[in-house]
Amino acid sequence: MGRLELQNLNISYDNRPIIRDLSLDINDGEIVSLLGPSGVGKTTILKAIAGLLPPASGRIIIDGHPVDHLPAEKRDAVLIFQKPLLFPFLNVGQNIGFGLKMAKIKRLAASKQIDKIIEITGLTGLKNRKIHQLSGGQQQRVALARGLVLEPSILLLDEPLSNLDAKLRQQMRELISNVQTRTGTTMLFVTHDQSEAFAISNRICVLLDGSLRQTGTPTQLFYQPADPDVARFFGCVNFIDGQIDKGMFQGDFARCTTSLSDSPKAIAVIRPEDIILSSDKRENGTVGTVTQIQFEGSTTRVTIETDNKTFTALSLRPDFVVKQSVWLYFPPERLHIFPHYQKP
Amino acid sequence: MRVGSQSSSLSVAGTGRKTSPGRLLILLGPALCVILLLFGGGLVLGLLQALGHLPSQSFDVLGLQHFINVLQDPDFGKSLILTLYISITSTLIAAAISVLLALILIRWAADSKAVNFILQIPLTVPHLVIAISMILLLAPAGLLSRLLSSLSIISGPSEFPLIVNDGWGIGILTVYIWKEVPFITFMLLSVLKNMGTELLEVGATLNASRFQRFYSITLPIIAPSLGAACLIVFAFTFGAFEVPYLLGRTYPLALPVWAYKNYSDIDLLARPEGIAIGLIIAAIVILSIILSQILLHFSRKRGLTL
Amino acid sequence: MRLQRWTLFSSVLLTVLLPFLPLILWSVSERWFYPDLLPQSFGPRAWSYIFGTAGSQIASGLIASFSLASVTTIISLVLGIPAGRALGLYDFAGKKIVFLLLILPIIVPPLSVAMGLHLWFIRLGLAETFTGVVLIHLTFCLPYTIFVIGGVFSDYNPDFEEQARSLGASPVKIVLQVILPMILPGITVAALFSFLLSWSQYLSTLIIGGGKMLTLPILLFSLMDSGDRPVAAAVSLVFVLPAFLALMGSAYNLGRSGLKGVR
Question: Number of B:C CB contacts under 8 A?
Answer without folding.
Answer: 322
